Amino acid sequence: MMTLRDAAVGETVKVAKLHGTGGIKRRIMDMGITKGIEIYVRKVAPLGDPIEVTLRGYELSIRKDEAEMIEVTKA
Predict the structure, then answer these.
(1) Is the pTM of this model over 0.85?
(2) Residue 48: which domain range?
(3) Whole-angstrom distance, CA of residue 2 vs CA of residue 17
Protein backbone atom coordinates (compact mmCIF):
# COMPACT_ATOMS: atom_id res chain seq x y z
CA MET A 1 0.00 0.00 0.00
CA MET A 2 1.44 3.37 -1.06
CA THR A 3 0.34 6.55 0.70
CA LEU A 4 0.62 10.19 -0.29
CA ARG A 5 3.50 10.50 2.17
CA ASP A 6 5.47 7.94 0.13
CA ALA A 7 5.02 9.81 -3.17
CA ALA A 8 8.15 11.50 -4.54
CA VAL A 9 8.45 15.19 -5.39
CA GLY A 10 7.39 15.76 -9.00
CA GLU A 11 5.22 12.65 -9.06
CA THR A 12 1.51 12.59 -9.92
CA VAL A 13 -0.58 10.05 -8.03
CA LYS A 14 -4.25 9.09 -7.97
CA VAL A 15 -6.27 8.70 -4.76
CA ALA A 16 -7.37 5.08 -4.32
CA LYS A 17 -8.83 5.16 -0.79
CA LEU A 18 -9.13 7.38 2.26
CA HIS A 19 -8.42 5.93 5.69
CA GLY A 20 -9.28 7.48 9.04
CA THR A 21 -12.57 8.11 10.75
CA GLY A 22 -14.93 10.88 11.68
CA GLY A 23 -13.66 14.45 11.69
CA ILE A 24 -10.24 13.69 10.26
CA LYS A 25 -11.62 11.90 7.19
CA ARG A 26 -14.25 14.64 6.75
CA ARG A 27 -11.52 17.32 6.89
CA ILE A 28 -9.50 15.55 4.20
CA MET A 29 -12.58 15.28 1.98
CA ASP A 30 -13.44 18.96 2.58
CA MET A 31 -9.99 19.88 1.22
CA GLY A 32 -11.03 18.26 -2.08
CA ILE A 33 -9.15 15.01 -1.64
CA THR A 34 -11.58 12.32 -2.76
CA LYS A 35 -11.29 8.95 -4.50
CA GLY A 36 -10.10 9.20 -8.11
CA ILE A 37 -8.53 12.67 -7.87
CA GLU A 38 -5.02 13.16 -9.25
CA ILE A 39 -2.54 14.87 -6.94
CA TYR A 40 0.79 16.38 -8.04
CA VAL A 41 3.44 16.48 -5.28
CA ARG A 42 5.16 19.88 -5.58
CA LYS A 43 7.45 20.11 -2.56
CA VAL A 44 8.26 18.45 0.74
CA ALA A 45 9.62 20.51 3.63
CA PRO A 46 13.17 19.68 4.79
CA LEU A 47 11.92 17.70 7.79
CA GLY A 48 9.12 16.08 5.76
CA ASP A 49 6.25 18.11 7.20
CA PRO A 50 4.23 19.62 5.51
CA ILE A 51 3.87 18.31 1.97
CA GLU A 52 2.81 20.80 -0.71
CA VAL A 53 0.54 19.36 -3.40
CA THR A 54 -1.55 20.61 -6.32
CA LEU A 55 -5.04 19.23 -6.95
CA ARG A 56 -8.22 20.51 -8.60
CA GLY A 57 -6.33 23.61 -9.77
CA TYR A 58 -5.16 24.84 -6.37
CA GLU A 59 -2.19 24.35 -4.06
CA LEU A 60 -2.55 22.71 -0.67
CA SER A 61 -0.19 21.98 2.21
CA ILE A 62 -0.96 18.81 4.11
CA ARG A 63 0.61 17.34 7.23
CA LYS A 64 2.46 14.06 6.90
CA ASP A 65 0.18 12.30 9.42
CA GLU A 66 -2.82 13.27 7.24
CA ALA A 67 -0.91 12.22 4.09
CA GLU A 68 -0.48 8.75 5.61
CA MET A 69 -4.27 8.35 5.60
CA ILE A 70 -4.48 8.85 1.83
CA GLU A 71 -3.83 5.65 -0.11
CA VAL A 72 -2.65 6.37 -3.67
CA THR A 73 -1.63 4.61 -6.87
CA LYS A 74 0.63 5.79 -9.69
CA ALA A 75 -1.34 7.96 -12.13
Answers:
(1) yes
(2) 2-74
(3) 10
